[in-house]
């Protein structure tokens, strides 16, 4: 079986409406992308978790999939008529049937975090069987080790977990940081996330890696303080969570923060200096890791 894929460049003013109309007219799927992606004019569009993204790329592109027998010209014309816009120009390519599982897996290779720490998908052999290997597959929850924010936190854990520390992974996503802490020698480790899917993914990943981390929704998170609290979230929630996160850190304990853009580092460091002696920020591909030591208050 094969499919037809149409690429339609369109202004953002009617990209969503046209995408919906194409689906109504018989398209199998429709995605909106940045028409200038990969160029110097690429436009970053992102928002904080739970907040709607209220804009699209000024130069949007629809990538639309059709059945092989579909009359693409007729469907595109019907969609344009429904939206009330001129017939757009488009290009079509034929997409042959493939082993999509194998193709997807081929895009995810083992990730080297340090000399002794690797993230390895379950379908790969470990590049270094003697290293600390985290078995983790791409899934529905954020955190596979490929993003700079996750990598920054993993590198800190690799360098600073000495053995027996209690750890809280706040905003655990896939559970990767809690699992890494345990495999690096940490003691009791817990994680929390507002997304029930993240809790399920974290529990599954912990079982896959043979470690006993516990994961909770925030309302069920046990009270207590920890030697290390790591929070790889984003700037807005970190701004609001300062006092709460500080309350989970023992005096003399460490906080590790990421999900922060480089230009946000000074502001976030100033906020957390209320409770912590902050270290110099560490940067990776435009993202920041902030760390600090809890002061006696």
Structural commentary:
This protein has helices spanning 15-25, 72-83, 100-106, 148-160, 176-183, 196-208, 235-240, 242-247, 265-272; strands spanning 2-11, 29-34, 59-67, 91-96, 111-112, 117-120, 132-135, 167-170, 189-192, 214-216, 226-232, 249-261, 276-278, 282-284, 287-294. The protein is an alpha/beta fold. The chain has two domains: 2-97, Alpha-Beta Plaits; 104-294, Vaccinia Virus protein VP39 (Rossmann fold, 3-Layer(aba) Sandwich), CATH 3.40.50. The strands form three sheets. Strands 8, 9, 10, 11, 12, 13, 14 and 15 form an eight-stranded mixed sheet that branches. A four-stranded antiparallel sheet has the order 2-3-1-4, covered by helices on one side. Helix 1 packs across helix 2 and helix 4 packs parallel to helix 5. The N and C termini lie far apart (67 Å). Residues 46-54 have low confidence and may be disordered. It holds the Pfam family PrmA. Methylates ribosomal protein L11. Its main location: cytoplasm. One of its GO terms (molecular function) is methyltransferase activity.
